[in-house]
Amino acid sequence: MTISTNTGQVGISKALHIVWGGIKKIPAVYFVFFAIFITLGFLSPSYQSMPGIMNFLRRTSPLAILAIGEMMVLASGGFDLSIGSIVTMVVLGSSLLLNNDPSMASTAIGVMLGLSLIIGLVNGLVVSYFKIPSFIATLGMMLLVKGGALYWVGGAPRGYLTDNWRSFGRGYFENVPLVGRFPYALLILIVIAILAYFIFHRSNFGKQVLAIGDNVRASQLSGVRVRVIRVMAFVISSLLAVIGGIMIGGFGGVNVTIGEGLEMQTIAACVIGGVLMLGGKGSVPNVIFGAFTMEAVFNLLNLLGLPKPYKDAVQGLIIISAVAYVSLSSRKKR
Amino acid sequence: MIKVLRALQQQERNKMTTTTFSGNLFKRFFNKFRISPVYIFLIVIFISGGILDQIFADGQILTNEAIFINIIVRSVALGIVAVGQTLVLIGASIDLSVVYVISLTSSVSSYIMQGDPANVPLAILVVFGIGALIGLVNGLIITKLHVNSFITTLGTSLIIKGIINSTFSNYVGGVPKSFEYFGYAMVGSIPVSIFVFVIIVVAGWFLLTRTKFGAHLYGVGGNAEVARLSGLRTDRILIGAHILCSMTAVLTGLFLVSRMQSGSPWVGPDGLYDLESIATTVVGGTAIAGGKGGVWGTLAGVLIFGVLDTVFNQLGVNPYLKTVLRGAIIILAVASYTYRSKKEAA
Fold first, then answer.
1. Would the pLDDT of A248 be above 90?
2. What pLDDT score was predicted for residue B18?
3. Neighboring chain A residues of B323 at a CB cutoff of 8 Å
4. Low-confidence ranges of chain B (pLDDT < 70)
5. The pairing of beta strand B186-187 with beta strand A180-183
6. Which fold has domain A28-305?
7. How far apart are CA A162 and CA A173, in angstroms?
């Protein structure tokens, strides 16, 4: 009798141990996100309702898409600081190309994708063939793209974005079962996330990106075509910046400063999502939740009544402390 | 210790410029004063800019003395902070927070002065104190928390930006007439600010080549682990370099506020002082990986940017196009130094 209860207890503790082990393997970002989101729900009833949650996800989707692109570059050991100005270019350039004609939407999007393909290629080629550290190359590219976009439109925003162009950012599927209105933006995020998951976690390309980020020389010696992979990472980042930019323009409208500071927000989102600075580690789902966490933190600060400019300061603190935490804890293990 | 480091540096220098024949007076002269060949580049750009100006504009660059001096005055703001950036880059670190240190200095000093000459010493003391503190924090985070310098200074600049934007929203305060002396006064036909600039450059040169700190900084930048194992306090040296860099940013901020006559929170980011100070330093031959370089090269880099800026102005280039050209020139200028390196960049 006593023996059987003992084994029962051992069984339970063993099971608990396994469950705890499983929980410990879940990255911290999920717990942080749900903790913040539940707090948000307590503070503001709108976050408890399905429309509120969908609205939150719609607003966050572009940042998550940008963060996936940034992650590809960060994981390879570089930085892409040009994505904010690509977003500006997409919004300003599209408004000019559309010229209030809805039938031009696909042309405008095509032109933007083409331009960003060139930008990504140049970023990648300059970094891998001229060996300029990527933050200088992409900072230079940031100036180039922003200046170019402003020169193109003549310094001030011109024209309007047509409704069909904007629908990617602010449109909804009506009457979806369970959720009611389902934003297009979220669907786009889900599609891109699935694609990115397969590219990054299930293909050679992803493994090679991580290998480069971990040790360039070793991966070179084992036959990875470092330069090609690096260029591809920059191109993916630029293309995703266009998609994110279309969605941001969709609910933000035409604005000269629309893309400002986005590169820092995405880097912060990646850091929260566990991407290792200077390469070697990254995960698509974690980064998406990193972006969700960032947006949730900003919403929380808003609800607590903190003035908007502190957003930057909070981002700075998050970036430094997350990286410090990782580097200190990895040193302890050694 | 210092002797060993000096010998190593000498070797490095000899390696860097493999002399074609020993009697090359020109190269010996350049080597002796640690002057980088970038000066030839500067002269070429100046002359070709002058010729372009002659052809397409009124040709004032080569004929008007005032414009010539103006090139240097334009370079003062960037030049002072670039000297600090040179120190940090030699130590294999980087400082992106200088832009917001400049903005903060401009706003805070002008806010404290409020146009009253009696407040000037206090304002200067406070801003240098803030600058030293920011440099110290940067250095401590990099060395003690082992955060990559790029991330650290990006983070601190975001924090300072948040503080500036929540405190100052427009032009603040004003500087008294006596403080404008720094920005506008002339000795003969040469502005005072140029003297200050020259003093800073010479001080940087002295610090790097004639003091223990300088020799140690090259050691830390060249190979931090070797420097540590040979008994250097690498952390302290790097923290020192960061403090000095922030101080130069403060001086730039003071110069700008004395010229603009009131503090503005966007003067730093507008002037692109982070990117341009790094670019001019790299153009001047300082390695981003650290351990190599000097302030004379940086001076040439700064003057190159000053000449280009003046040429663009003379030719009446559209301001947005100027931003594009600036971006392209920074990339090309850095590329001209890095493309030969064998190490893969990231």
1. yes
2. 44
3. 143-144, 146-147, 150-151
4. 1-36, 342, 344, 346
5. unpaired
6. ABC transporter involved in vitamin B12 uptake, BtuC (1.10.3470)
7. 19
Nearest CA in chain A to B149: A320
Question: Mind giving me the DSSP string for B189-214?
Answer: TEEHHHHHHHHHHHHHHHHHHHSHHH
Asked whether the beta carbons of B323 and A150 are under 8 A apart, the reply is yes
A256 contacts chain B (CB < 8 A)? no
Scanning every residue of chain A, which has its alpha carbon at the shortest distance from the alpha carbon of B324?
A144
Count the helices and strands in chain A (H runs, E runs). 14, 2
Q: CA of B208: how far to CAs of A261, A284, B233, B311, B328, in Å? A: 36, 46, 17, 33, 31
ipTM above 0.90, yes or no: no
Which residues between 244 and 273 in chain B have a beta carbon less than 8 angstroms from any beta carbon of chain A? 272
Of B321, B327, B346, the CB nearest to A77: B346
Q: Which amino acid is at A109?
A: I
A172-176/B186-187 β-pairing: unpaired
- Dist. CA A199–CA B142, nearest whole Å: 34
Secondary structure of residue B263 in the 3-state scheme: strand
Which pLDDT tens digit goes with each residue over B97-138?
Answer: 999 999 999 999 999 999 888 999 999 999 999 999 999 999
Helix (H, G, I), strand (E, B) or coil at B288: coil
pLDDT in tens, B284-315: 888 888 888 889 989 999 998 899 888 888 88
CB-CB under 8 Å, A278 with B346: yes
- Residue A118 contacts B where some CB pair is shorter than 8 Å: no
CB atoms within 10 A of CB A45: 9
- Report the SS3 class of residue B290: coil
Enumerate residues 6+ apart whose C-beta is below 8 A from B253.
Answer: B101, B102, B103, B104, B105, B106, B109, B127, B267, B268
With contact defined as beta carbons under 8 Å apart, do B283 and B304 qualify?
A: yes
pTM for the whole structure: 0.84
Can you give the pLDDT at residue B31? 63
CA angle A92, A95, A97 (to 5 degrees): 105
For chain B, the distance separating the N- and C-terminal CA atoms, rounded to the nearest angstrom, is: 33
Q: Where are the domains of chain A?
A: 28-305
Nearest to A155 by CA among B316, B330, B321, B272: B321
8 Å CB contact of A143 and B145: no
Longest dimension (CA), chain B: 62
Say yes or no for a CB contact (<8 Å) between A143 and B326: yes
Q: Does B324 touch chain A (CB under 8 A)?
A: yes
A173 DSSP 8-state letter: E
Rounded-to-integer distance, Cα B111 and Cα B173, Å: 4
